[in-house]
User: Fold this.
Amino acid sequence: MDNIIRAISADGFVSIAAVSSRGLTERAREIHNASPVAAAAIGRVMAATSILGSAIKKDGASVTVRIHGGGPLGSIIAVSDCDGNVRCCAGNPEVELPLRTDGKLDVGRAVGTNGMLTVIRDDGENEPYTGGVALVSGEIAEDFTSYFHTSEQVPTAVALGVLVDRDRTVRAAGGYVVSLLPGAPENLIDAVEQNVAETGAVTNILDGGGAEDLINSVMRGLEPRILSTESVEYRCYCSRERVAGALAGIGREEVDDILKKGETVEVTCRFCDEIYNFSPEEIKNLNLEVDNGQMV
Ligand SMILES: [Zn+2]
Assistant:
C-alpha cells in the first residue's frame, strides 16, 4: 500500500519525508494511458506533490504543482489534498520517446527545460500562495531541489523515481525530501550528503522495499525517529456539480451549437476516468442561470 512516512534525526537537525507511491502512479498510468516516459514524469511529480500536500495538515487545504517545460509531454498538473492524496494530468501522456544513451527513460526531454515549476499552496481560506522557479533539467527531482533552495531557503535534497516494467505497468515509484534545519553542524551536512549518494536511485530500494527503507538508508547513523506514517492514494474530487460549473461558463455560440445538434454532451474529468453526461436542455439551463446571474 502507498504511504508517506515522516521522520526526524535524534538531534532534531535532519527531517525527512519519504513516499512509496507505486499504486497511485499505476492508477495514473491507467487513467491517462500513459507511455513509460510519461508515467515516469507524472509519477515523479505526484510523489513530490504528495509530500508537499501532506505537510500542510489543514482540512480543505491543497497544493497544486504545475510544470510547463515546453517538451512533447506538454504541461503537467498535479494536485494533492492535505493528506497527500494526489491526482494529476498531462497534455500529451501518450508521447513516446527513445531511451537515453544510458538506457533510462528520457524524462527531461519529455518535460522540456524551457519553462517553470510553479507551486500553489491553498489553505482553503486565504489567498493562495504561489512560488516558482525556472526548470533546471526537466528531470523533476532537480527542479524540486531548486524550488526548495530558492523558495524555502533550506538545504534540501530531493530524490524521485519511477520504475516501469517491461509490460509498461509501474513496478516501483516514490521518493524523498530530506532537509537540514537551521543550525545544523557542517559535519552533519556532509553525513547526509554521503548517505544520499550511497542511497542512489530510489527505485533500487522501492523495488521490493518501502518508504521506511528509504528513510533507513538516507538517515543512516542519525537515529531517525518516526513521526508519522499515513497511507495515500490517487484521489480525484470531481463531481457533477463541478463539471456543471465549468460548463456554465461556455459561450452563447457554443450553447446554440449544442442545441442545434441536439446531442448529449459527454465530459470526461481531466484528472480521472469519470464521465459526466449533460443533455442539451441541461446545458441551456446552466447557461441561462449564469446569464441571469450576470444581469443582477
Ligand atoms: Zn475526476
